[in-house]
Amino acid sequence: MQHKKIINLYPNNNHKSLSISLQVQDKFETRGFQVSYENNPNADLNICIGGDGAFLRAVHKSDFSNIPFVGINTGHLGFYQEILIPNIENFIDEYLKSNYEIETLDLLEARVHFSDDSEALIFNALNEFVVKSSDSSIIHLDVLIDNNHLETFAGDALLISTPSGSTAYNFSAGGSILYRSLKGYQLTPLAPINSKAYRSLLNSIVIPSMSTLRVKVRNEDSDSNSTLIIDGMSNEYDNLNYIDFKTSTKSISKLTFYKDWYWLNIKDKFL
Ligand code: NAP
Ligand code: MN
């Protein structure tokens, strides 16, 4: 007997997303699929229902699953959420005919090293990492690219964004939009200080994906804790030493159905 094909659904918690999720479940079950809300590792497709935040949470919940993702938008336009509610039926038809492209979205990896020699912690992000002080005081960070000292940053925070995350927090902070399949990542300062005492770069730098970026906490910050924000989720540390960032060896994939949607979405969302 042939096994049923499986679809994972990841709705966010609002009423509309839950109701759309039931409709999507029904449409796939009618076509002979099995639907799971439990992150089934044997599924063929992960469907996220909600806004871009719902996509981010599904990617983390699945621990960066290599099953392709697709997003159904229940809010305003989204960068990860390509399918609009009136197009759900059409999306399922095109999916069954394999009429889509598979895009790889690169992730960023952070290796967090502590001053007491305890084991480094490793995290992945789809949008970005942010390094700041936990009490909102100025943070002082040495910035090195492939071991070359670039600057001593002083300001609110440093933000390190993937290409697909470049339209999120990075964009609000004045960073550039990087097309989501470009190889590399972006370092963007948040409120960098420029005075006689401090000189920090005011603009973003795009770093090639084979390079490592090191961000090291300076001694003047030893009294305050540091926070690493991973796609919007905060982790606080009292003995952070340095973090090495690079393009992760892991990635995720996303189905795209409408080729022009990226640029239309940028115009629609920002202009
Ligand atoms: P949220 O507070 O609901 O998200 C903030 C906004 O960012 C939402 O409008 C969200 O879209 C949008 N967004 C998320 N990823 C995006 C992307 N790749 N491109 C364009 N817009 C994107 O929190 P959330 O939904 O959990 O999202 C977490 C993200 O919020 C973080 O990764 C960070 O990028 C962003 N953020 C932005 C700022 C800022 O711009 N000043 C500050 C903090 C965090 P939806 O409404 O569709 O979810
Ligand atoms: Mn959100």
Walk me through the structure.
- The chain is an alpha+beta fold and 271 residues long.
- It folds into 2 domains: 6-99, Probable inorganic polyphosphate/atp-NAD kinase, domain 1 (Rossmann fold, 3-Layer(aba) Sandwich); 107-250, Tumour Suppressor Smad4.
- It is built from 5 helices and 16 strands.
- The strands form 2 sheets. Strands 6, 7, 8, 9, 10, 11, 12, 13, 14, 15 and 16 form an 11-stranded antiparallel sheet that branches. Strands 2-1-3-4-5 form a 5-stranded parallel sheet, with helices on both faces.
- A hairpin with a 6-residue loop joins strand 6 and strand 7 (121-125).
- The longest helix has 16 residues, at 15-30.
- The structure holds NADP nicotinamide-adenine-dinucleotide phosphate and manganese (II) ion.
Main structural class: alpha+beta
Order of helices and strands: EHEEHEEHEEEEEHEEEEEEH
Q: Could you state the CATH homologous superfamily of the largest domain?
A: Probable inorganic polyphosphate/atp-NAD kinase, domain 2
Please give the CATH architecture of the largest domain. Sandwich
Q: Provide mean pLDDT, rounded.
A: 95
Count of individual beta strands: 16
Bound ligand species: NADP nicotinamide-adenine-dinucleotide phosphate, manganese (II) ion
Helix content: 10-25%
At a glance:
By secondary structure, the protein is of the alpha+beta class. The chain is built from 5 helices and 16 strands. It has 2 domains: about 5-100, Probable inorganic polyphosphate/atp-NAD kinase, domain 1 (Rossmann fold, 3-Layer(aba) Sandwich); about 105-250, Tumour Suppressor Smad4, CATH 2.60.200.30.
